[in-house]
C-alpha cells in the first residue's frame, strides 16, 4: 500500500526521473508538467523523507554561529556583521557561546550537525588543548559548510576569513623600532591559538630584520586574559631595567595593561609605550590615545556570511575559500619613545 | 485519492479518534493497537502536517533570543546567562539583533512564530514608536511563551525579569542630595522605553521628597546614545551656572559624558559629579571611579531562562510571572560634591 515515486509517475503519466526532478527542484521540467506532478503529489499526500527534509529545510533556514566570548564586544561586532547579511538572506542564527572551553565548542559542533542547518560560522576558542582528536574529527566529519572567522585551526584547511596577524605583529614591532625602541616586549595569547602565534612570528621577524636580538624573557604569555596581562605588567614595571615598549595582543589584555600602569602610577608612553590590537573607542574618550592594529570585526562578520551564502548557493561543490584581510595600524601616539 | 485519518482508521480497524490519540500521543491507547496503527501509518506513508510538526519539534529544541544591540556587552552578558541555562536544558538559541529598530523586532517575532520554537526571551528596543499596532498585535498573537528581560512593554502584561528602575533613579538622586547637591540633572533614554521612564520617575520622586523643585531644563533626553549624551554634556558644561551633578541612565551614555568632560578639560567630580547605570570595569582601570547602579545582566539572563524553562515545563498553563530585581548602588566617589 506504500506510495512510491513510481505511483506518482504513473498517475501523472511521466517518468519517475521527471518526478524526482520536480521533488528535488533540479533540472528542467515543463511548467505544466511540473504543475500536474505537484498536484498528484499533493492529492496523494506523498511526503518522502527527502521532501519532508527539504520542506523543513525551507522553513528553518538557519545557520550556526559559535563564538568564544559573547561578552567581548569584538565578537558582538562579528555577530552584528553576520546578522546583517543573514537577515537579507532570510537565514536565522543559532548561537553558541563557548566561554573558550574546547568541550563546549565540540558540543556546539555536534549539536549543529544534528540540526538541519545550512552552515556554520565559527571563531575557534583559544584554549590550551586545541590538538585534540575528538575536536579535529568532529570538524572533519561535519558535512556542513563551515567558515572560520578571525582565527584558524591548525591541521585543518577550512574556509575562512582571517586577519593577517603576522603582518599585524610585524607592523606593531616595526613601528616601535622606527621610534627608537630596542627593548620591546610582547604579551601574547596562548600560543596554541593561531592569531597569538602569528603575531609572535611577526614580532620576531621585525626584530630579526632590524638585527635586534630576540629576548625570550620579553615574550610574555597573557593568555588573552585581562587579569593575566595585568599581573605580568605589574611584575614588568617593578623591574629596574624593564622594556620601554610592549606589543599587547588583544583588547582585553590592553585593559589589563592599562590597569597595571595606572595602579603603579606610571604613564603611557612616558614609562611604557604600548601598541594594542583591536579598536576600543573608550580609550580615546578617556584621553588614552592607544595606537592599535584594527581588523574591523563587523566587516569580518559580513565577509564570512557572504562567503557562507556563496558556498550554500554552490551547494558546497566549490574549492576551499580562504580570505585574508590585512589589519590597519591606527597611530595615536602611545608608541612614542619618551625616556631612553 | 488523498489519504485521510479515516483511511488509516479503516485499515487499522479502529476509530478515527484512536488514530488521532496515537498521532498526538495523547490519551490512552492499548500498546498492540498503537503498534498496529503506527505500522499502517508507516505503510501508507501518511504524514499529516501536525505529525511532521511534532516530529521536527523534538529534534529542534530551540528558543529565540532578541536583543537590541549585540555589540553592547550588557546584552552579551544577558545572553551569556541565558546560554548557561539553555545548555543545561539542551536548548539551542536562535539569536536576533535588532539594532534598536522596531521593524526588525516585529520581524524577528514573526519569524520566530513561524519556527517551531519553545519560547522567546527578548529585551525590547528603545525606539521612538513603541506604541505601534503591528507590534502590540504581533506580541498578543504569538502563542509562544515569551519572557521580557530588563525592559517592559507598555500595554502588555508579559512574563519577565525586570529591574526596579524607579528605585534606581531614586537612589542615585537621593545619594546626590545627601551629598549636598541641589542642582541635579538627569540624562535619560527615550521616554518611550520603560527603564528610561522609570528612572526619571525615581529621580523626580527623590527631588519631591526632598522638596527640591523639578527643573524641566535639567531633564535631558540622551536617547541611550553615546553621541547624544556627549553633545548634551558639552552644551551643559558651557553654561555658566550648570548643574553640579548628573544621573546618567546607561553605560553607553556614561561613556559619552566622560568623553565630553575630558574634551572640556573638566574633572569628575570636581566640575561635575556623576552617577551612572551598569557596571563598566574599564572605568575603574583607568582610574575613573564612577558610582553606578548595578543590575547584573548575567543574572538577569539566568533568571529569565529559568523562568522560561519553568513555563515550558508547565506547558504554558500558568499565571503570568513577573520578577523584579532591585539594583544595587556601588559607591566609588564620583557622586561627591566638591565645588558648591
TrEMBL record, chains A, B:
Gene3D superfamilies: 3.40.50.2300, lambda repressor-like DNA-binding domains. Pfam families: LacI, Peripla_BP_1. Residues 3-47 form the HTH cro/C1-type domain. The keyword Transcription applies. The keyword Lipid metabolism does not apply. InterPro entries: Cro/C1-type_HTH (IPR001387), HTH_LacI (IPR000843), Lambda_DNA-bd_dom_sf (IPR010982), Peripla_BP/Lac1_sug-bd_dom (IPR001761), Peripla_BP_I (IPR028082). Keywords: DNA-binding, Transcription, Transcription regulation. It comes from the Bacteria. GO terms for molecular function: DNA-binding transcription factor activity; transcription cis-regulatory region binding. Residues 3-57 form the HTH lacI-type domain. PANTHER family: HTH-TYPE TRANSCRIPTIONAL REGULATOR GALS, LACI-RELATED TRANSCRIPTIONAL REPRESSOR. This is HTH-type transcriptional repressor PurR. It comes from Clostridium saccharobutylicum DSM 13864. The gene is purR2.
